[in-house]
Amino acid sequence: MEGQWYDADAGPLVRPYAMTGGRTRPGPHGVRFDLIALVVVDPGGTDPAAESLLGPEHRALLGLCRSETQSVAELAADADLPVGVVRVLLGDLLEAGHVKVSRPVPPARLPDERILREVIEGLRAL
Q1: pLDDT digits (tens, 9 = 90+) for 17-47
Q2: Nearest of 90, 93, 88 to residue 53 by alpha carbon
Q3: Phi first, then psi: what are they for 50, rounded to 5°?
């Protein structure tokens, strides 16, 4: 029948702001999660009773992190959630002690252009 929606065609049934309780920033401390920050389940923070009180999205993220360490971007893609929502949910999990987040190593600083020119001139002189 034309004009009828089926579940897959209707899109998400729960709006992102409902998953985060209307919050747009993770936790009271305003933690910032880079897209390449690595998230792993904290083995000392896994209490099945506490996990049972979490929402389905929180539990889905924990399940994804249990199989292997994942970046924030990978979690968003695998959970099929917007990155902003994943950041807020990860903030909740971090505050509760369920996950650990390792910050990405800052990219190496490139040498000064002047030094590179001197090296090139030195090589040409050989």
Answers
A1: 666 665 656 766 667 788 888 998 888 766 7
A2: 93
A3: -70, -35
